[in-house]
């Protein structure tokens, strides 16, 4: 069982190998009536062998209605055609082609791309040339075939030559300056497959973004080595842009220098605040120690009071005991003797109260 698993894994790994063109090697695609391309790689052009072989095996006399195609009841691959300019290929283009590819089961998607001459005449200048636009479409995963030099208006001969069953495009009338809709005939024949536009993105929107930031892109490309002539910029415009770039560089340097100075100043202020807090803490500690030593209830005052009491005790004698507590009076504490009464003469003792002399 383990050997069978290893063999299957080896076969899967072999089938994933591809050559320089992105095509699988080591595996021959089996014949299949399905329209999906078994060989992974860029979609072929309409004049290449793979596209011709696919087209020749289709019986175009067997017509397929849109209802039958949507129900998946067609006996052959359904060939769906989508055309456009596809300048600056973006996600809106890819989503439109995805809608076409997934709209019908077993569909074969053919994309027609107009050349530069026809596009410039009908619509205007393009950013990408025709070769670049063709190549961009070939590498979209939903595309099965690319037709170069596609016509602006689809004719019966063109539809029959490429055996096209349905034409896909958004449902809005596409006039491009003319009064009639380009897809009016296809709609009348019941061969039209409507798709939805992707809002918010288009080639015009992308170009508008570039124009909006024109100076920025010119500065960037001049910095990358492009010349003013390559960018279609005048000599004065080039000098003006370079002067502005130099000014912005100087301004950026000044901003960096200012930021550096402010950072250093902030760092020094932080250090100063830190030292101030430390000094404040130390000063509080010093004042506390000073008050603890020299304050009203400090150690010095307490020591002075104790010393004063000790000196007072040393100089003053102890108090004498009271009389009640002593049995015999002490000569130091006894009261002095009372004075004797003075001797009075008879004359002094005479009573003068009777009024006689």
Class by alpha and beta content: alpha/beta
Subunit organisation of the chains: single chain
Return residue spans where pLDDT drops below 50 for at least 5 consecutive residues: 6-35
Largest sheet: 5 strands, parallel
Instruction: Count up the helices.
Output: 12
N- to C-terminal distance: 176 Å
N-to-C order of helices and strands: HHHEHEHHEHEHEHHHH
The shape, in one word, is elongated
Give the proportion of residues in helices.
40-55%
- Indicate the mean pLDDT: 78
How many whole angstroms does the radius of gyration measure? 58 Å
Strand-residue fraction? Answer: 5-15%
Strands of the widest sheet, in order across it, are 3-2-1-4-5
Can you give a write-up of this model?
- It contains 12 helices and 5 strands.
- It has 357 residues and is α/β, with parallel strands linked by helices.
- It has a 5-stranded parallel β-sheet with strand order 3-2-1-4-5.
- α8 (184-188) links the parallel β4 and β5.
- α10 (214-223) crosses α11 (235-294).
- The chain is elongated, with a radius of gyration of 58 Å.
- Mean pLDDT is 78; it is low at 6-35.
């Amino acid at each position: 069982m383990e050997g069978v698993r290893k063999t299957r894994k080896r076969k899967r790994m072999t089938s994933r190998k591809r050559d320089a063109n992105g095509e699988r090697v080591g595996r021959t695609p089996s014949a299949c009536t399905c329209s999906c391309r078994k060989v992974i790689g860029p979609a072929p052009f309409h004049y290449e062998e793979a596209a011709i072989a696919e087209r020749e095996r289709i019986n175009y006399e067997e017509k397929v209605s849109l209802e039958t195609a949507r129900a998946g009841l067609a006996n052959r691959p359904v060939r769906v055609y989508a055309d456009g300019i596809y300048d600056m290929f973006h996600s809106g283009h890819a989503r439109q082609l995805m809608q076409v590819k997934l709209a019908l089961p077993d569909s074969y998607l053919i994309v027609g791309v107009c050349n530069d001459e026809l596009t410039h005449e009908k619509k205007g200048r393009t950013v990408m040339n025709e070769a670049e636009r063709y190549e961009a479409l070939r590498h979209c995963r939903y595309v099965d075939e690319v037709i170069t030099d596609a016509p602006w208006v689809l004719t019966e001969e063109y539809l029959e030559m490429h055996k096209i069953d349905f034409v896909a495009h958004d449902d809005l009338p596409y006039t491009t300056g003319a009064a009639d809709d380009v897809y009016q005939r296809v709609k009348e024949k019941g061969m039209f497959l409507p798709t939805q536009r992707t809002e918010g993105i288009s080639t015009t929107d992308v170009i508008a973004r570039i124009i909006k930031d024109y100076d920025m892109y010119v500065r960037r490309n001049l910095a990358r080595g492009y010349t003013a002539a390559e960018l279609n910029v005048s000599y004065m415009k080039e000098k003006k842009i370079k002067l502005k770039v130099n000014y912005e560089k100087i301004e950026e340097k000044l901003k960096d220098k200012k930021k550096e100075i402010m950072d250093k100043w902030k760092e020094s202020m932080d250090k100063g605040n830190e030292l101030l807090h430390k000094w404040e803490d130390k000063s509080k500690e010093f004042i506390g120690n000073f008050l603890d030593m020299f304050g009203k209830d400090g150690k010095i005052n307490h020591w002075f009071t104790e010393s004063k009491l000790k000196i007072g005790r040393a100089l003053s004698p102890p108090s004498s005991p009271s009389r009640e507590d002593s049995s015999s009076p002490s000569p130091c504490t006894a009261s002095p003797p009372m004075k004797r009464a003075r001797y009075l003469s008879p004359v002094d003792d005479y009573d003068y109260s009777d009024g006689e002399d």
